[in-house]
């Protein structure tokens, strides 16, 4: 009798409380993902995005409107690796032992950068839309000052977006917990789905569909008239080619974003609820981390300047005088 009582107590998060949650048994595969893969990708995400942040911030040649948006996206991805992953590992523990207030703070505050990722993707799509569809007025429409204002508004929106969920859950601590040792928050799923997925995704798809149509049209036009292009217009053609290449690269970034985020929100659209800490939830979260880790890898494949700057950073040549003026393009 005493042995059975001890076993039951060992299965509870708080044996001294009547309404204690039972400790959830974790499969070995789940433990491998949580304690091996997630920390590894977290470290890789932080390292790679830090290289992007240093590159664009340090070298003057990279201080362009498009790269400012890439810098903002890199900061978002950096925060995901640095803040979101450690707290997600903590939240996936079989029992929550830190109290209701810590549950809310750990569930919401680390995700401040998450809405910024979606908004940055929309801003990148707008940038490419103007560059391809209205190239003659791109330099007047998309100025560094305007981009900085947009990036600032993006982060202000992201902060207030998370504070909305924070205050909603602070009204009554532990309201959504069914037992002691559980960490459940209300994320207002419909609002989150519309603001962070449906609206940004729809905007991105519409803009890039238009970019794709115009880009294909311009590519065909350049191929058919390349023999008749005069020397005076050769620079214009080169600019168009570079813009098309940038559109293709950033199109890959946007496509990867959609592939990684669609499964999570697709489940929400289907009406299913993900249990925090479940294997499905962890896999969906892993896709989000994978997206933040993959963006710098895409830059490395498509942008020669990123490969050059990484070499300068790793070899510590950026510590040399006048390294900011180095030719990396």
From TrEMBL:
Domain of life according to the entry: Eukaryota
Protein known as: G-protein coupled receptors family 1 profile domain-containing protein
PROSITE patterns listed in its UniProt record: G_PROTEIN_RECEP_F1_2
DNA damage keyword on record: no
A GO cellular-component term linked to this record: plasma membrane
Keyword Transport: no
Organism: Anabas testudineus (Climbing perch)
Topology relative to the membrane: Multi-pass membrane protein
Domain G-protein coupled receptors family 1 profile: 48-299
Gene Ontology molecular functions: trace-amine receptor activity
Transmembrane regions: 32-56, 68-91, 97-126, 147-167, 194-216, 249-267, 279-302
InterPro entries, per the entry: GPCR_Rhodpsn, GPCR_Rhodpsn_7TM, TAAR
PANTHER family from the UniProt entry: HISTAMINE RECEPTOR-RELATED G-PROTEIN COUPLED RECEPTOR, TRACE AMINE ASSOCIATED RECEPTOR 19P-RELATED
Localization in the cell: Cell membrane
Keywords tagged on the record: Cell membrane, G-protein coupled receptor, Membrane, Receptor, Transducer, Transmembrane, Transmembrane helix
Major localization class: membrane
